[in-house]
Write a structure and sequence with these properties.
five-stranded antiparallel sheet; 229 residues; 4 helices; 34% strand
Length: 229
């Protein structure tokens, strides 16, 4: 069994972590307010989701797979959730918007089957991406729209604000109990990042392509302070 670590095992004090920032692009897809709320938020085998605090995730919405972290994510279908796609550039975003437009101009108005098909397309066709759920409220605090936008709220290219985060490299392999509906898997080391009150694991490649030193220089995971929980 791989080891399981959690956020409370990581020390993010200034002398134990590395300050980093990210101002790279993210692609946002608003989750619709599904009729009936969407599908039950359970694992594909019917098992229950449990968050990092050990509390059951309940309700309805949409369940999807994050290929970067090899974990399942759950977003509520109440009209307040968004899917954030990382590792995407302007050209890939334009192609993705063209694909979405085949089903209508606003993905926030899709029914559940078409929305799940869209997420499958992103996972399989949009390149090496990370996909995770968030909320409109969180996006409003941490991201800014990149113009020209789509004209639809919380849809299209956004850029992370230049907020400082604390990063720690964790070597080896294991599972991280974070914000995803199932633990995030890492196989050859990964970065655990604290941004405000949010703590999540980021794979090495995704980290190096989306984060920088606090002064804007490129950063490698080998430059981060290391902890072995």
């Amino acid at each position: 069994m791989p080891r399981v670590i959690s956020a409370d095992q990581i020390d993010f004090a200034a002398d134990a972590s590395t300050p980093v920032l990210s101002d790279t692009l993210r692609f946002l897809i608003p989750v619709p307010r599904f009729r009936g709320g969407g599908e039950p938020l359970v694992l594909p085998d019917g098992g229950a989701f449990v968050n990092w605090e050990g509390k059951a995730i309940t309700g309805r919405g949409v369940v999807f797979f994050n290929p970067d972290d090899e974990c399942w994510q759950a977003a509520r279908g109440d009209g307040q959730a968004v899917i954030i796609v990382g590792g995407i550039d302007e050209g890939e975003a334009a192609r993705l918007i063209a694909r979405i437009t085949e089903d209508g101009p606003d993905p926030g108005k899709l029914d559940l089957p078409r929305f799940k098909a869209l997420l499958d397309h992103v996972r399989d066709k949009a390149g090496s991406v990370a996909m995770y759920d968030s909320t409109r409220a969180a996006v409003a605090k941490t991201m800014s729209r990149v113009e020209p936008g789509t004209g639809i709220d919380f849809y299209g290219l956004y850029r992370r604000n230049k907020d400082l985060c604390a990063a720690v490299f964790v070597p080896g392999e294991g599972l991280f109990k974070g914000p995803a509906a199932t633990p995030q898997r890492f196989r050859n080391g990964a970065v655990v990042l604290k941004h405000g009150d949010s703590i999540r694991l980021i794979q090495k490649g995704s980290f190096e392509s989306t984060y920088k030193h606090a002064d804007g220089r490129p950063i490698r995971v080998s430059e981060l302070k290391t902890q072995t929980p």
